[in-house]
Amino acid sequence: MPAPVNKLPSRTNGGCSKSSPSDEKRAKNGFLTLCRRLITGAMDHVENTPAVTAAKTQHKPCGVGRYFLLVTYVIYAFLTARVYFAWPNLSNLLFRSNAYSWLCTTYLQEGNPDMREEIHGGKRYICEAQNSAVGNIFVTCLAFAFSFSLAAGLLLDYLGPRITAAIGQLMNALAWVLLAFGSESAQTYIAAFIFMGIGSDIGYLPLLSSANLFPGHEGLIVAILGASKSASFAVPTILDKIEAANPGIGLREVSLGYAVIGPGLCFILALILVPYKHFKPWNEFTEMERGGAYHHPIQRVNDSFASIEAHAWRDSFSSFHEGQWPLHAHDGYSGGTASEPGRKAKCYLDVPRPVPSTGPCKKALSEGVGADEEKKRDEEKQKKNGFSDADQAAEVPAIYQATRMSVATGGAGNAETLDQLAGGREEKPASFIRQFTSPYAICIVVYSIIKAIMYAFFTTAAENLLGKEVNDFMGAALPFSLFPCIVIGKVVDMVGIMPILFFLNTCITLAYGFSMIPALPTAYLSAILYICYVSFYSSQSYCFVSDTFSSSHFGKIVGTIHLIAGFLSLLKIPMQKLVVDVFHSVYYYPCLIMLVLCGVNFLVLLLLWCKKRTEPHPFWPQAARDMAKQEAEERRRRAEEKKVQKAKAKQERSKEVELRNQATDV
C-alpha cells in the first residue's frame, strides 16, 4: 500500500530528507545527476524515519540506485507504454504499405477513381473498403487493450513484476514482427494489434511499485511515469516520419527496427531491472519502530487525480481476494473519525506499537490510552509552536484524507478501515454484486460504452471529418495531451469528478459539432477538443469509481467496466459498414448519430449528478461519509464567511469614498 503523505509545516527537527549513503556513492556527474537533482527539487522533504529509510534503501535489481531505476523506467514507459493511441501516424504507415489495398481491386477494375489522387480528394486510401478495414484494426486493438487490462492486473498479482513485464514486452515485440510481415497472403494485421493492445498494460503496470522507493512522493513518481506513457504517443510519429523521409525504408524495416529498439530493449530491461516482487511500501517496515508510538511525517499521497489511472492499478488487484480486505488496516491512524473530526488536521500519522496478535480491533483498543496521551503532548507542542488544528486544517485538502488516499492509490480497503479499527469496530463493505448493480454502476457502464464508441469512431474517421492536414496535426499533437491531463487532474482535486465528466462530454460533443462545419479553423478547433478529451479518456472511469465505490472492490469494478465497454466498442465496426453502405461515405448523418449519443451521455451524467448530490459517496464506510459531509459543510461555511467578509469590505470602501466626497465638498 502506498504511503499517504501531505505537505508538512515547517518543523524544528528532522524536516529534511537526505539521500541514503548507498545512493550518494552511486551518484555520478552527468545527466543522471541532473535528473536526480530536478526530481529531488520537486519533492517536499520527508523525515527519514526507520520505516521511510528502509523503504528507500530496499534491495533493487543489480544494486542500482533508485534514481537510476526511475530514469530507466521513464525511458521504458516512453518506448512501449501506449503507442497505439497515436492512430493517425500508425494508420499512415499502414496505408503507405498498401495494407488491405487488395480490397479495392474490384473497385478499380470497375473504373472507379483512386481516391489517393489529388483530383479525387487526395486521401490516404484507395477506396472506402480499405479505409474501413484499416480503421477496424484500431477498434479491435482498443477493445482488447481495455478488456484485458483486468487480466494484466491479475498477472501482476500472481506472477510478479519481472515475469509480467517480460510477457508484456514479448507480446509487444511479437505485435511488431507480425505487423512487419503482414500482407495479402499473410493477413496478420489484426493479430498484431491485438497483441499490441494486450501487451501495453502488461508491460507497463509492473513499473508502478517503483513509487514505493520514494516514500511520501508516490503520487509524483506515478505522475512522472504516467507522463511518459502519454509521451509514448510520439513513437509512431517518429516512425512515420522516418519511413516517409526514406524511400528505401518501408513498414517492414521500420517495424522490425522498432521491435528491436523498443520492445526488445525493454524486454532486456525487464529481465535485468524489474524486480521479481513488488517494492514494498513504507508502512510494511513499521515493525522496525518497536518501542513506542512513532510520529510519521507521512500522511497523504501528494498526488492529483491526473495520475489516478496508474495509481489505482498499482495495488488494487489485491482486492480480488476478499479475505484481504482488512489487512494492514491497523498500521496506523489516518484522517479522523466521525466522533473525532479534529483528528483530520494532524500532520503526522501515528504508527502504533506492535502487539501480540489479538485481532486488529483489540489491538487498536489496547493502544488507545497511549495514543490519547501522545495526542495531548502533540497538542501542547502545537500550541507552543503557534499551530492550531484550525490552522493546519486549512492546509489539508477539503476531503476525507484517508479515504481519498485509499481510493486514489488503490490500497484495497486500507484507509477506509483505519478509523473503524481505531474506534474498536470494523465495517464490512457492500458486496461486489450490490455495488455493481447499483444505479451508479449501471449509469457509468452505459456512459463508458457510449464513450468508447464515440472515441473509436472519431479516431478512425478523423481524416474524413477534418481532412488529411488536420489529421496529421492530431498525430503530431497527441503526445502533448499529457499537459491537459495534468491540468484536468488538478481541477478534479478541486471540484470533484462530476463537473469534469460534463466538461469532457462537452469536449467530444463540440468536436463532433465543429467537424460538421467545412472550414479549416473549426477543423483544428475540433482536433484540439479531441486531444483534450483523449488526455483524460481512461482516467474518467478510475476517478468516478474511486469517488463512489468501496476501494475493496475497486479492481473488479473498473476491470468489469472496461471489459464491457471494451468489447461493446466493437459496435463501431458495423456502424462503419452503415456509413459506407447506407450513407455512401457521407459523414454528416453519422456525426448527427454521434451527437445524439453525446446527448444520451449528458442525460446519463445528469442522472448521476442527481444521485451523487443525494449521496456523493454511497459505498464509502460510514465514518468516511460522515467526515466528507462535515468537510463539505465546513467548505460551505468558509465560503459564506468569505462572501460576508467581501460584502463588509465593499461597504467599508463605499463609506470611505462617501467620507472623502463629503470632505471634498466641505
Account of the 3D structure:
It is found in: Membrane. Keywords: Amino-acid transport, Membrane, Transmembrane, Transmembrane helix, Transport. The chain crosses the membrane at residues 67-87, 133-156, 163-182, 188-207, 258-276, 440-461, 473-492, 499-517, 523-545, 557-575, 587-609. InterPro entries: MFS_trans_sf, SLC43A_AATransporter. Residues 1-25, 358-389, 631-666 are annotated as: Disordered. The chain has 666 residues and is mainly α. Strands 1-2 form a two-stranded antiparallel ribbon. The chain has a domain at 30-288: Growth Hormone, Chain: A. The protein is globular. The protein has helices at residues 21-26, 31-42, 50-57, 66-80, 87-96, 105-109, 128-147, 149-159, 161-180, 189-204, 218-231, 234-245, 251-273, 308-315, 360-366, 368-385, 389-393, 401-409, 414-422, 432-436, 439-466, 468-477, 482-495, 497-515, 520-535, 539-548, 554-568, 572-581, 588-614, 622-665; strands at residues 294-296, 349-351. The chain starts with 20 loop residues before the first helix and ends with a helix. The chain is built from 30 helices and 2 strands.
Largest sheet: 2 strands, antiparallel
Question: Which spans have pLDDT < 50 for at least 5 consecutive residues?
Answer: 1-28, 291-371, 386-424
Q: CATH class of the domain at 30-288, please?
A: Mainly Alpha
Molecular shape: globular
Number of strands: 2
Determine the fraction of residues in helical runs and give it as a percent range. Answer: 55-70%
Range of strand content: under 5%
- The N- to C-terminal Cα distance equals 73 Å
How do the strands line up in the largest sheet?
A: 1-2
Cα-atom radius of gyration? 27 Å
CATH architecture of the domain at 30-288: Up-down Bundle
- CATH H-level superfamily title of the domain at 30-288: MFS general substrate transporter like domains
Mean of residue pLDDT? 75
CATH topology-level name of the domain at 30-288: Growth Hormone, Chain: A
> Which structural class fits the helix and strand makeup?
mainly alpha
How many helices? The count is 30
Biased composition (Basic and acidic residues): 372-383, 631-659
Protein name: Transporter
Subcellular location: Membrane
Transmembrane segments: 67-87, 133-156, 163-182, 188-207, 258-276, 440-461, 473-492, 499-517, 523-545, 557-575, 587-609
